[in-house]
């Protein structure tokens, strides 16, 4: 490994050599065993060579195409259609009895090649410096490196896709004139043709992936595992172009693996789910973790009857009954995304059914943001991403304000979810649609996850995890958190950061949009919006101030790699700076500084113009990976006011993204928030409570009866500011605390207020 890639203890290594080979599709076939707390099965990976991708990435636009793919421009200009036919027939091995192979494939060469167990290092595999950072190795074997840890790899084999019945359509003679007729090249040619199918043939492609994933093996491949990687070679193969482009890995997870949590839900029933680990999914399946490795996937997951499998998938899976009281669940995704966004949750979840409820869709015209009916000049522009069935080019869904959605929870929380959560989802989805336009994903599941979940929420493609902590109290915390996670559908998922250190591109945008969505969902007036957003800004400023005072300066920088942001080694391997640092996991600086930057830009441009620019940015960059300058350059070009104010990309880097501490522009603005009406009301209430506390402390037991003080009813965020302010007082006597609890019913408030209970 290059010296600059040598991971320190606080850095997360991304070991996959994506510059040489890119995973284009995963097929997972897994069994979940709650007795042993193990997920076991196989994964088939379909690759394309990655050298052309290195050339494309230098332009700043991620097209993720093969060096052989000369038809991309033609495909990119085609409209993206979503076929309506059913693909559920291509679900799992046990459901695909009609699958046939045309031959037995090559003879198993495992004895000749030798297979290495999970614990031993293969002596024939050189160091990463020798095998991963050079494409032409002379007499040395090319080594495929995948991100992997906490897994027991049992076997790796090449898949004989040429043995699949009906695969002849991908081996037309005209296509074979430029490639060797040797079987290895033929198989790679078939995979290349398969992954290169145009977007309108996605259903056919998915079925072909299913067929090929079930093809027989044609020789085991030597492998070795390290702390962070799985290295695979094929003896005698020295280049990525000749390396097998379809491989099958048999493996099982470790009960203590860091990608999933085995626990019990709030009803005491066993469950397992991906909880947003800093190491992402490499302890769930071998993969390419770097965000540049955009891929699609499909998965068949089997579990005992009574368990429900939820997953990142475009389809609402229906279980298939198998022998021995086992259910099989099948999901697929046709939009290429990083493997880190894959999410699964298996438990005794119960769907929260909608009763006689009709959601109120916001109609307040005073706070209407620009509508999607507006005649935008960019609306007809073609997508800039690699071809996939894109919703932004599908007229049938361009007016869909509320996408199909379901809510799941442990049985003991069903009634609470029905009361608090279910009615909010249509309102929040509609508010998001009116702000940013077309929903990037076709459906949404929302799951209340177990109590060991360390965050309030987490968004993944087609599914959102929410903490049970958002349910108590009124709708405020539940609604704002739901809006935050819905915002990630656009920023974080449909548009991702090309460099994981730029988390603000995801979290800063979601935090900013959270306020916009929630204001629309509540149908607030412009005056109410202004007051509540200034109050929220003050609360976040206080949080940022405290975090800056109590954290290391190096963790406060939003672009820690500065001018090197987005750069990779020759092999594609890299490290995520401070990705494993314990303190960073709980920090919110990327949320807060990112939010304040966007708020500052919106104030300069005017909110309406700024939100129109956000929608334009979404239209241009959805399905792609971006860096900070991609957004900032477009914004400064799009809104002349920004340029007239003297803003430049360099000044924004200097003041906001590349330095620690609180940005100077923010220090000038905070005083105005302190004088907004809602904050002044809180100051008045704080004074009342301090005076009450003083009187209570001075009064004797015989003189406890005082003139009753009338306390004003407060909004949820006002209550949070009140409690934070009272916490700054040296002492509050027990009787005052009891009075506080009675007045505001603190035990019934949401987690934001409860966490500040004095």
UniProtKB/TrEMBL annotation:
Keywords: Aminopeptidase, Hydrolase, Protease
Biased composition (Polar residues): 115-129
The keyword Protease is assigned to this record: yes
Residue span, Peptidase M1 membrane alanine aminopeptidase domain: 439-656
Pfam family, any one: Peptidase_M1
Region (Disordered): 101-130
Cited InterPro entries: Aminopeptidase_N-like_N_sf, AOPep, ARM-type_fold, M1_LTA-4_hydro/amino_C_sf, Peptidase_M1_dom, Peptidase_M4/M1_CTD_sf
One of the record's GO molecular function terms: metalloaminopeptidase activity
GO CC terms of this entry: nucleolus
PANTHER family linked to this entry: AMINOPEPTIDASE O
Name of this chain's protein: Aminopeptidase O isoform X3
Source lineage: Eukaryota, Metazoa, Chordata, Craniata, Vertebrata
């Amino acid at each position: 490994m290059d010296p600059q890639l040598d991971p320190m203890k606080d850095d997360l290594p991304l070991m996959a050599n994506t510059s040489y080979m890119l995973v284009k599709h995963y097929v997972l076939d897994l069994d979940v065993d709650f007795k042993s707390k193990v997920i076991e099965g196989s994964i088939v990976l379909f690759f394309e060579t990655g050298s052309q991708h290195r050339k494309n990435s230098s332009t700043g636009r991620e097209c993720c195409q093969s060096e052989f793919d000369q038809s991309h421009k033609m495909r990119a200009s085609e409209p993206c259609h979503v076929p309506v036919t059913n693909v559920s027939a291509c679900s799992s091995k046990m459901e695909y009895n009609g699958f046939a192979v045309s031959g037995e494939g090559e003879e198993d060469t495992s004895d000749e090649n030798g297979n290495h167990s999970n614990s031993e290092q293969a002596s024939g595999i050189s160091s990463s410096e020798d095998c991963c950072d050079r494409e032409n190795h002379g007499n040395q074997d090319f080594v495929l490196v995948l991100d992997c840890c906490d897994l027991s790899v049992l076997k790796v084999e090449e898949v004989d896709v040429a043995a699949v019945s009906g695969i002849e359509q991908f081996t037309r003679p005209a296509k074979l004139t430029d490639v060797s007729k040797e079987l290895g090249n033929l198989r790679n040619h078939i995979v290349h043709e398969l992954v290169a199918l145009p977007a309108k043939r996605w259903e056919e492609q998915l079925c072909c992936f299913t067929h090929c994933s079930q093809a027989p093996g044609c020789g085991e491949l030597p492998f070795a595992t390290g702390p962070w990687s799985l290295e695979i070679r094929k003896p005698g193969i020295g280049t990525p172009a000749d390396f097998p482009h379809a491989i099958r890995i048999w493996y099982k997870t470790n009960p203590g693996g860091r990608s999933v949590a085995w626990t019990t839900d709030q009803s005491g029933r066993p469950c397992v789910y991906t909880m947003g680990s800093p190491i992402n999914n490499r302890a769930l399946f071998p993969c390419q973790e770097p965000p540049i490795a955009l891929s699609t996937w499909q998965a068949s997951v089997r579990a005992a009857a009574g368990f429900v499998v939820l997953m990142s998938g475009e389809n609402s899976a229906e279980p298939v009954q198998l022998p021995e009281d086992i259910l099989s669940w099948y999901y697929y995704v046709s939009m290429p995304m990083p493997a880190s966004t894959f999410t699964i949750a298996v438990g005794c979840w119960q769907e929260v059914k909608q009763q006689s409820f009709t959601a109120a869709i916001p109609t307040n015209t005073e706070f209407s943001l620009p509508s999607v009916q507006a005649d935008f000049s960019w609306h007809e522009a073609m997508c800039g991403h690699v071809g996939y069935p894109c919703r932004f080019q599908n007229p049938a869904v361009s007016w869909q304000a509320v996408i199909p959605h379901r809510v799941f929870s442990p049985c003991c929380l069903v009634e609470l979810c029905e009361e608090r959560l279910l009615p909010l989802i249509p309102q929040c989805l509609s508010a998001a649609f009116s702000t940013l336009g077309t929903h990037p994903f076709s459906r949404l599941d929302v799951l209340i996850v177990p109590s060991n979940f360390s965050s309030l929420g987490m968004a993944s493609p087609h599914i959102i995890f929410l903490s049970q902590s958002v349910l108590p109290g009124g709708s405020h915390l539940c609604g704002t958190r739901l809006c935050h996670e819905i915002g990630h559908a656009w920023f974080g998922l449909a548009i991702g950061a090309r460099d994981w250190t730029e988390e603000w591109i995801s979290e800063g945008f979601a935090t900013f949009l959270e306020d916009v969505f929630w204001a629309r969902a509540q149908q607030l007036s412009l005056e109410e919006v202004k007051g509540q957003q200034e109050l929220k800004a003050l609360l976040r400023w206080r949080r940022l101030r405290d975090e800056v005072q109590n954290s290391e300066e190096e963790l406060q920088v939003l672009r820690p790699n500065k001018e090197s942001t987005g750069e990779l080694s020759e092999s594609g391997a890299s490290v995520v700076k401070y990705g494993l640092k314990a303190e960073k996991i709980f920090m919110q600086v990327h949320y807060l500084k990112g939010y304040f930057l966007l708020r500052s830009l919106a104030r300069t441009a005017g909110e309406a113009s700024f939100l129109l620019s956000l929608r334009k940015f979404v239209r241009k960059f959805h399905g792609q990976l971006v860096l900070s300058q991609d957004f900032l350059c477009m914004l400064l070009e799009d809104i002349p006011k920004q340029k007239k104010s003297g803003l430049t990309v360099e000044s924004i880097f200097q003041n906001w993204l590349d330095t620690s501490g609180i940005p100077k522009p923010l220090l000038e603005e905070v005083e105005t928030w302190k004088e907004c009406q809602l904050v002044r009301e809180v100051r008045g209430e704080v004074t009342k409570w301090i005076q009450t506390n003083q009187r209570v402390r001075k009064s004797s037991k015989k003189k406890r009866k005082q003139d009753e003080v009338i306390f004003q009813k407060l909004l949820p965020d006002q209550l949070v500011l009140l409690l934070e302010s009272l916490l700054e007082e040296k002492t509050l006597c027990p009787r005052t605390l009891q009075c506080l609890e009675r007045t505001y019913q603190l035990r019934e408030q949401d987690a934001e207020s409860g966490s500040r209970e004095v």
